[in-house]
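Why do we care about 3D structure at all? Because function follows from shape, and shape follows, mostly, from sequence. That is the central idea of this module. The next example makes it concrete: a single protein chain, its amino acid sequence, and then its structure expressed as tokens.
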Amino acid sequence: MKENTEAADEGRIVVHEGSKILIASSEEDMKVLSSPQRQRIFKILQSEGVPMHGKEIGDRLGIKAASTHFHLKKLERIGAVKQSHTQVINGITARYYEVSVDSVILGEDFLEATDDSLTKQKMLLIHNTFNANRDAFIRSLHQTMQQKQTGDLGEKRLHLLLDFKLYLSAEDAELLQKDIEELFSKYESPASGKKPHAVWLSINKDENS
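And the structure:
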């Protein structure tokens, strides 16, 4: 609990339009968030929206409760999750955790020159985040294809994968980023009848141009 308070005091947790946002910038932040398991734990707690204990999360991930608690403590230390309450289950005290922020973003200094160690952690974070989102997209798409093959259509799922070029000036790029942020902001708040959808958007200058 103490770490969460310190994080807020340091300005690492900000409130924007009612949402609490953790700004990740330190080497410790990068190390913690670059773990695929910790990314999945945070997303599970975020999507469920209710406190969960280590064994529940571990069963979802296929890992032992002890490993889950190890990752939860790391996330708690940087202020991404917090302990909600404890409950005795079959004579064992279970610690329940929930997200303490609505989202995590990278600090504005992310692209600034840093020492080799921090640069390595930054690249690892991007690499693992990209792979985690790619794998989640493939799993969801594969599940939908299997459901269609068995005739179990269920609810319609959105799978959108785009691959094309944009031609932008420096001014165009700034306007595009602003337009994207404004568009997505319309759909960022939970509401009845709406389910969370993962978005991973990548735009960069064509290295062959």
